[in-house]
Write a structure and sequence with these properties.
182 residues; alpha+beta; three-stranded antiparallel sheet; Homeodomain-like_sf; Resolvase helix-turn-helix domain protein; DNA binding; Resolvase_HTH_dom; DNA strand exchange activity
Length: 182
């Protein structure tokens, strides 16, 4: 899945300060105070639930922050101690693409895949610029290929040529030029 380029491909859904659910383009909501907005979805707690849903009082926002797990609470606590953090919010928005709705885990997986692919392509280009071609080295040298061709042209069977160079017959066939049919 290709990601849209720039903010124009994304839409954001959030609940504004008046409690009205809105869905707008990403570029239209830069000024929204997401740190002070309510969560975009309700978090339900029930008996026997495996995760822990509770409120954590955050000093950064001077108010409660809804967390759904111990890990999320620990992250909130660490962020709360960082003086560079100016706001904390629990699920203040959802991201959408024009074609279909995509979950956040899919977004992160896709972004990670794109970053890895770009880094791999950059590395391969840098290696090529240094003369490295990558891949498995050739089984036969240029000199051996010429010798194999001479043996083949003189009528030596390919399996015997293969044994001479300690290679598979398929490898020999890959390197030699067959005789023209009469």
């Amino acid at each position: 899945m290709a990601l849209p380029e720039g903010p124009e491909g994304f839409e954001v859904e959030y609940v504004d300060a008046d409690g009205v659910r809105r869905r707008v383009g990403l570029a239209e909501c830069w000024a929204e105070p997401f740190g002070r907005l309510p969560p975009v979805r309700t978090v339900r707690a029930y008996p026997g639930q495996k995760s822990v849903t509770r409120q954590y009082w955050a000093a950064t926002t001077r108010g409660p922050l809804l967390v759904e797990s111990h890990l999320e609470r620990h992250h909130a606590m660490l962020l709360d101690f960082d003086p560079q953090v100016t706001g904390l919010a629990a699920q203040p928005f959802r991201l959408f693409w024009p074609t279909r709705r995509v979950g956040m885990m899919s977004v992160f997986a896709t972004l990670h895949h794109e970053f890895v692919r770009a880094a791999t392509n950059d590395g391969l280009a840098a290696a090529r610029s240094r003369g490295k071609t990558g891949g498995r080295p050739p089984r036969l040298t240029t000199e051996q290929i010429e010798q194999a061709q001479q043996l083949y042209d003189s009528g030596t069977p390919v399996p015997k040529i293969a044994r001479t160079f300690k290679a598979a017959p398929a490898t020999i066939y890959r390197y030699i030029t067959p005789k023209a049919a009469n």
